[in-house]
Design goal:
single chain, 412 residues, alpha/beta, Nucleotidyltransferase, domain 5, DNA polymerase, domain 1, 3 domains, six-stranded mixed beta sheet, three-stranded mixed beta sheet, 9 strands, 10% strand, Ribonuclease D, nucleic acid binding, nucleotide binding, HRDC_dom, HRDC_dom_sf
């Protein structure tokens, strides 16, 4: 078998990929089929291309509803982890010790970990493209630019919990891994040519070893449009409705926005309605589900309405993190001067090495260092602070010196 697509057509100077080289494979839904696929992968060679399909806009839980696997010599395999009750031990065994190739790996690794699938080595084609300096790093764009193929726009935002999965969706899913291996080779060549392969390897390891995201404190504060709510009691409404929505969404395994849109929560926080009729008259409460649960929403609003002052949330988050940079000038002019100098210095370094400044060093880390510099702002002290903040060795080597200079800046 080959990694190169077979069924193609010329389109606008590009080769339009209409279906996988070996055709769209059937979905693997039983143990016998899984074992046959694993035997084929084991007989193949080289890295393994992997992708998943989720139902983010439809379901609460970010589980994988399809796992796509491709390896040179084995072809593509589409595995249904739901039909297999998540029992993919044979796949974990055959993948052990192999390099996984994914695009935007941080999106897929959590749901793969839920299936007890963990990479021993990783190559992230999206991250590689960022480090290589490509201005656009979507899979389709990279495939066109580096390989000369045009991937059809697909069904990535579809409800992948649907069963049976339509053939057109399966075709799209198989194409997602069809060219990952040749794309990996092309990007590795660019990174090696530019002396960036060590950087990429350090970044890949950081993604691979990243711990699960810690639960956010006060996650309700991320409700879209919350900046429009300017009273503590209004924020209490947001908190109550967000928590009620989250409980329903968890129980029903539905995306929270399908249970109650953010705009409905914000409208209620601004109006603080006092009756069911007033609730359902607000924007976002007109859907059948929202109207059916109007009594629930009103009860939660009434909790916020009758809470004592000491129970109301603060207007701003009580956090040790730095304030928004647009407030630095008033609160700490020296910190604002440090941040301005740091941003200019890091932008110059990033441009010189043709990579995004946010990949050069995490913006949050830069803000923390500028807001509260280490006791030793010399190059060694700055390097130590960068490492403590999670910067990789290649990032420290490029940024410690310019950041050290910036941390000595003052407003006077």
């Amino acid at each position: 078998m080959t990694d190169d697509p077979a069924d193609t057509a010329r389109s606008g100077g590009l080769t339009a990929l209409t279906e996988p080289a070996e055709g769209t494979p059937p979905v693997i839904e039983d143990r016998a089929g899984l074992q046959r696929a694993c035997d084929a992968v084991a007989a193949g060679s080289g890295p393994v291309a992997i992708d998943t399909e989720r139902a983010s806009g439809y379901r609460y839980w970010q589980r994988a509803y399809l796992v796509q696997v491709r390896r040179h010599g084995s072809g593509t395999h589409l595995i249904d982890p739901v039909a297999l009750d998540g029992a993919l031990e044979p796949l974990a065994t055959v993948l052990a010790g192999t390099e996984w190739v994914l695009h935007a790996a941080s999106q897929d690794l959590p749901c793969l970990a839920e299936l007890d699938l963990h990479p021993a080595a990783l190559f992230d084609t999206e991250l590689a493209a960022r480090l290589a300096g490509f201005p656009r790093v979507g899979l389709g764009t990279l495939v066109e630019q580096l390989l000369g193929f045009q991937l059809a726009k697909g069904h990535g935002a579809a409800d992948w919990s649907t069963r049976p999965l339509p053939r057109a969706w399966l075709n799209y899913a198989a194409l997602d891994v069809e060219l990952l291996l040749p794309l990996r080779r092309s990007l590795a060549e660019v990174l090696s040519r530019d002396g960036k392969m060590v950087w990429a390897e350090e970044e890949f390891d950081a993604v691979r070893q990243a711990p699960p995201a810690a639960p956010r404190s006060e996650p309700w504060r991320r409700t879209s449009g919350i900046h429009k709510v300017r009273t503590r009691r209004g924020l209490a409404v947001v908190r109550e409705l967000w928590n009620a929505r989250d409980a329903q969404a968890r129980k029903r395994d539905r995306a929270p926005g399908r249970v109650l849109p953010d705009k409905a929560i914000i409208a209620a926080a601004q109006a603080i309605p006092g009756s069911v009729e007033e609730v359902v008259a607000l924007p976002g409460f007109g859907g059948q589900h929202q109207r059916r649960h109007a009594g629930t929403w009103l009860r939660r609003i009434n909790v916020a309405r009758t809470s004592g002052e000491h129970e109301l949330p603060l207007l701003t988050r009580n956090s040790s993190d730095p304030p928004p940079p647009n407030k630095w000038g008033d609160r700490d002019p020296d910190a604002a001067a440090r941040l301005t100098a740091a941003r200019a210095a890091l932008t110059e370094v990033a441009e010189r090495h043709e990579l995004p400044v946010e990949n050069l060093v995490q913006p949050d880390l830069v803000r923390k260092l500028c807001w509260e510099p280490p006791a030793d702002i010399g190059m060694d002290g700055t390097a130590t602070a960068l490492r403590a903040g999670g910067a990789r060795p290649w990032q420290v080597s490029l940024t410690a010196e310019p950041l050290s200079r910036s941390l000595g800046t003052s407003a006077t």
